[in-house]
Description:
Blueprint: E1 3-6, H1 12-20, E2 24-27, H2 33-39, E3 45-48, H3 56-60, E4 67-70, H4 80-85, E5 89-91, H5 98-114, H6 116-124, E6 142-146, H7 150-161, E7 165-169, H8 175-181, E8 184-185, H9 188-194, E9 197-200, H10 214-218, E10 224-228, H11 237-246, E11 249-254, E12 273-275, H12 284-304, H13 320-341, E13 346-355, H14 363-374, H15 386-392, E14 396-402, E15 410-418, E16 421-430, E17 434-440, E18 443-447, E19 452-459, H16 464-474, E20 479-486, E21 492-499, H17 505-512, E22 517-524
Parallel strand pairs: 1-2, 1-3, 3-4, 4-5, 6-7, 6-9, 7-8, 9-10, 10-11, 11-12, 13-14
Antiparallel strand pairs: 13-15, 15-16, 16-17, 17-18, 19-21, 19-22, 20-21
Helix pairs in contact: 1-12, 5-7, 13-14
Amino acid sequence: MPxxxxxxxxxxxxxxxxxxxxxxxxxxxxxxxxxxKAIIGGYDGLAIRSATKxxxxxxxxxxxxxxVGRAGIGVDNVDVPAATSRGIVxxxxxxxxxxxxxxxxxxxxxxxxxxxPVANASTxxxxxxxxxxxxxxxxxxxxxxxxxxxxxxxxxxxxVGLKMKVVAYDPFLSxxxxxxxxxxxxxxxxxxxRADFITLHTPLTDATRNIIDAKAIAKMKKGxxxxxxxxxxxxxxxxxxxxxxxxxxxxxxxxxxxxxxATDNALFGMEQVVATPHLGASTNEAQENVALQVAxxxxxxxxxxxxxxxxxxxxxxxxxxxxxxxxxKLAEQIGGFAGQLAxxxxxxxxxxxxxxxxxxxxxxxxxxxxxxxxxxxxxxxxMVNAPVIAxxxxxxxxxxxxxxxxxxxxxxxxxxxxEHGSASVAGTVILGNKPRVVSINGIPVEAELGPHMLYxxxxxKPGMIGRLGTALGEANVNIATFHLGRAAQGGDALALVQVxxxxxxxxxxxxAGMPGVVKAVALRF
Length: 525
């Protein structure tokens, strides 16, 4: 039974989800880093919010850990590269609090337009300063949205309902999607020049960090108002303060700050600033939604292999997971086969899926192929970090799909290009779940791969099988299965032999030195 640790406060209903699904769960909140480090090795899953810091030090001792689930969007408190290198899937819940966060952005924009916080404070103090608080309407104003993903799209929808004109900057926003939302797609400088209000809904990356700084503000309309409910660090706070002091920016509303908890900030105390303590996701509905969602996602992964909303692995639906399982073993075997034969630097990898397998989500299979391919060459490779390792080594990886397959019900073919040529291996699945190799470098052969295998490439000449069998027999190595293939009579041939014991270096050298042998490799699976 998988075991999950809940280290931040989650809804009791979410904890019950784990129990109902057959996952053992412990709830231990408020753990200090050393306390978490001491116990994390006993868990398969870790469910968190924003309080728990999943550092590289924690990950290094999490020997059983398979998944970290963040109830919420941001994973700033998780060392995702460290998790990836250890094969730990990191999930978040990007949709559970989208409406809540979008509504908070709209609320801050309205509060900013009508100076509601200072007007409220003044009235509570018994003053009646009706003439002091002159606001602006949202009707007819232009709202610039930076980042028009899930939350940004909801903000756009609400703003259109308020009869605002909406322009959006997002490199991934298509013209068709913009038209569906009723917004105008714009470049960033154009958005700065046109917007009366600007709201940010983009993740914090190297490309978006400090996206609003003094240079950006200089391109904006005088009197612009800026809302940030996304991430601290998107806006340079000292530049905003200077622009507020000069009057170029009329107001700012921030729910997030560069340093949190923000108990002291240069913007605090300014009447033109509305500030809230990271409340974007703070509604009962959102907290319940993300907690239930992360529990379901983690349980699905631990029990069935289904992957949803992962940051470092392609998604696999609960329906696809059992269908992919037989192909996972095949993908691992053909990757491992090619990896053990590769003795030169790889330049490119091509994986072809034909027949029934081409109808499935093949991204996870590609990751397993890469894991098998790279594992013989380097340590600590897993299906999560294998694509990253391939990119770091400038290995081009491509996929091809063809739902038609002439010779087999289904086929997976791996071609590896090195600086000295290319090699290929193809396999299929028979009887529902049994992987078989069916082709090596274009030579047909049907073989089941066992723990210990011997691969011999040779010239097709009489006596080869006898010499090979004799050599194995004299070394007291028993043959379990013996598979042969050749391209043509007298041409290239191969033998793929399953043996009961490993073939040692001395025996391998003797086989490699036989007349007609081109290559001999001992394989392990």
